[in-house]
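The step that takes the researchers longest sounds almost clerical: writing a folded protein down as plain text. Below is the pair of lines this work produces for a single protein:

——
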Amino acid sequence: MSEETKKAPEAETPGPAGAQTGSEETAAEQSASPSAGADTAGAPEAAGDAKDEPKKKDGWFNKKNREAEALKAKLDAAEKSAAQAKDQLLRVAAEYDNYRKRTTREADQKFNDGVSYAVNQIIPILDTLEMAANAPCADENYKKGVTMTLEKAAKAFQTLRVEEIEVLGKPFDPNLMNAVQQVPVQEGQESGTVVTVYQKGYKLGDKIVRHATVVVAE
């Protein structure tokens, strides 16, 4: 009996060891529980980041849209400014072209007026020379000199673009002629036509330098 009694306590000795094992498991659970708590606490933060990410994307797109709208506004303003500049240049070019044409017409008009004035001073001299050329003369050299002078005058008029108005045998035109007399119609003549030219008429382009002085058949 004494031996069994001695062995009995030895058999019970594992009890405290088992208790120690249980405490170790409890400690392990306790040590594991904070990490679990930490994971649980981190889960809301991750959820918050997931919610903020769409907001960041929306903000980025809104910023890009605003930048694109600003660039489009600048482009529209630049195109409008370019169109205004082009329109202004076209207006200036048109005004310059009109000015050039107007000054050219004015210069031509002044030149023609000057030529007309000079020709009007010379025409009476030519009228006298023509009368001398048509008058009977025994001196052929004198008559030849007068004729050569008239030919040179005709060439000078041609250079100045001064033309003689052809009226003999033409219908009377008050815009080109002055009628000083009417005579009965002769055989072979038509009423209203020029039958005699007292003074030649001249024109410079469309400008009448001197009207022709004529006689018209009735």
